[in-house]
Amino acid sequence: MSSSCNFPARVRDSLDKAGLSFVQAMLMSDADLQRKANLTKEDMEAVKMHCAEELVATKFLRAAELKYRFLTTGCKVLDEELGGGFARRGITEVSGESGAGKTQLCLQAALSVQLSQSSGGAGAGAVYICTEDTFPSARLQQLLHLWPSIHAKTIAVKFSDNIFIEHIPDAESLKNCISVRLPNLLRQRKIGLVVVDSIAGPFRADYDLTQGAVTRAQVLKSIGQELHMLANIHNLTVICVNQVTAVAGENKSLSVPALGLAWANLVTTRLQLHRSDRMLAKHDGSKAHIAERLLEVVFSPYLATKRVPFVVTETGVQGLSKQTI
């Protein structure tokens, strides 16, 4: 249980014995909660009231605190285009075709979150949940080697000690991880970022698109609600990588994020990455070229739709300013 939710010890013990986190208790019906935790009506009201007050407490925000509502992407150009970086709280979806740079952006965020608040980070660790491929440890090691030279003030930070990796094989395991294991870790360690790479993987494999559509939507909703709840309580940045599917349009095939409206309704900010045919010359004295990519803001409560060019280099993801293009 969150220490900020001042529950009576008796109620907390009942929830612990039932194997329920307060996030799960908030999402359950009174009948189910009473059956599983043997709580009185007054106890259930107290649980939900205390958590609701914690989640929706109205507070004035000082102007100086505005910058702490975002996690830096690790790139000043992208931060400016995204209004500060990745938003804390809510769910940011990063979708795109293979090779567009989704995982690269998430790895960079896993390092950025460990920076101090004055540098745009949270001074906290990252949880990286892999559901498809194995964790890209070789690429992470490359970034770890180069990161201190880019961010001179971070030499003392042991980045590799603050990234917690979990491999998830199926949808039920993902649900259990988000609702049980992740809350336990959040109580023990200071975490500022949760990455799910990818949200679509387990659901494409585990559910038939016709017979399992309703079940898939229910599990997706449960996972999304849990992530929103945890993000609000712990002030987390949550990034969910998504795959794209091809949809035939009038003139050409369009790529849209997978999982349909059941998932889209749970997303706060949707970013889509695109590969480009445009090649740019490297500014390192060589004759080599690098592929331009595009970051598209599809929807967001605080951003207009836009496209931002960027490249992926040895040192990470770098947005391109108008002067660079």
UniProtKB/TrEMBL annotation:
Q: SUPFAM superfamilies, alphabetically?
A: P-loop containing nucleoside triphosphate hydrolases (SSF52540)
Q: Which keywords appear in this protein's UniProt record, sorted alphabetically?
A: ATP-binding, DNA damage, DNA repair, Nucleotide-binding, Nucleus
What name has this protein been given in UniProt?
RecA family profile 1 domain-containing protein
Q: Where in the cell is it found?
A: Nucleus
Which PANTHER family does the entry mention?
Answer: DNA REPAIR PROTEIN XRCC3
Q: Does the keyword Iron-sulfur apply?
A: no
Q: Which PROSITE patterns match?
A: RECA_2
- Domain RecA family profile stretches: 67-244
A Gene Ontology biological process in which this protein takes part is: double-strand break repair via synthesis-dependent strand annealing
Give a yes or no for keyword Ribosomal protein in this entry: no
Q: Which domain of life is it from?
A: Eukaryota
By its UniProt entry, which Pfam families does this protein fall under? Rad51
Q: What are the recorded GO MF terms, alphabetically?
A: ATP binding; ATP-dependent DNA damage sensor activity; four-way junction DNA binding
